[in-house]
Amino acid sequence: MPTIDEIIEYLTRRKEKILVEDFENAEKKELLEISVEEKYKQELSSKKIKTGTLLDDLIGGGLEPKSRLLLYGEYGSGKTQTCFTIAVLCPDHVIYIDTEGSFKATRIKQICDARGIDYKAVFKKIHLFQPKSWIEQMLILDKLPSPADIEDGKIGLIILDSLSKHFRGIEFAGRQSLSIKQPLIRECIGRLERIADAYNCALILTTQIYESPTANPFLPDWTGQKAVGGASLEHQPDYVVFLRKAQGNVRIARLMDASWQPQRERPFMITEKGIEDLPETKKAEKIIKKTEKFERQFYEMKKEKEN
């Protein structure tokens, strides 16, 4: 039976082989300057994947091809329900890697039925993988379908729910294991980004939370909740969104970081349709006013720092 060191050595040899291939390919092809004007036109014309909720507003109108979204929050905060909804609404094929064991075909059907979508067509477009360990999670990246394997050749979205679940076992306990765990997490992210770039599709990662020991005791509990994976994870995505519970089935999505969007909050709720906007009620109006208040406070703080 191989030891953990031997498994990592195998993964390292595989990575070395990829690096050699990258080097050989880079040497053969002409590396051309990228036209910013052309890139701008591509970004404007790209088809975005939408949830149909205020979450789209958080990230500039929806997920673009090759964009990366990180969702983190406590259990029941809406990470998986958001993934389900986006998977159903994505017009193209979806690769769904479920490490949590939380994927429910019955829930996908319920969302489809509530939205008047043919669930059988959605079942066919979702390519589900359920690795049972971090080793399977790493090795499965070599076995994902490519556009050539898809009938219409278009994969629009890759979802990994969640990235960190299998990296929390006894073999990764204690700070002494960080030098093993963090490179594996970074490698998993890097491989998925590479695949998403090659397929010209969006990537969604989810992760759990941990309670920060430096949290301020005078602030709400959720202010001390941080994404499991740390800086290795948070610096990678284009959008980092923190989800938290509010009242009843209401959830709050806070944009924590983005390359070109301001920090802000938007409420949504979990229903039979997956996730959707709050109805126009006094209760909803109160929650929305709270999120708008946060946005104003953020801008005021930002102005003070600039002055």
From TrEMBL:
<dbReference type="InterPro" id="IPR013632">
    <property type="entry name" value="Rad51_C"/>
</dbReference>
<dbReference type="GO" id="GO:0006281">
    <property type="term" value="P:DNA repair"/>
</dbReference>
<dbReference type="GO" id="GO:0140664">
    <property type="term" value="F:ATP-dependent DNA damage sensor activity"/>
</dbReference>
<dbReference type="Pfam" id="PF08423">
    <property type="entry name" value="Rad51"/>
</dbReference>
<dbReference type="InterPro" id="IPR027417">
    <property type="entry name" value="P-loop_NTPase"/>
</dbReference>
<keyword id="KW-0547">Nucleotide-binding</keyword>
<dbReference type="GO" id="GO:0003677">
    <property type="term" value="F:DNA binding"/>
</dbReference>
<feature type="domain" description="RecA family profile 1">
    <location>
        <begin position="45"/>
        <end position="209"/>
    </location>
</feature>
<dbReference type="InterPro" id="IPR020588">
    <property type="entry name" value="RecA_ATP-bd"/>
</dbReference>
<protein>
    <recommendedName>
        <fullName>RecA family profile 1 domain-containing protein</fullName>
    </recommendedName>
</protein>
<dbReference type="GO" id="GO:0005524">
    <property type="term" value="F:ATP binding"/>
</dbReference>
<keyword id="KW-0067">ATP-binding</keyword>
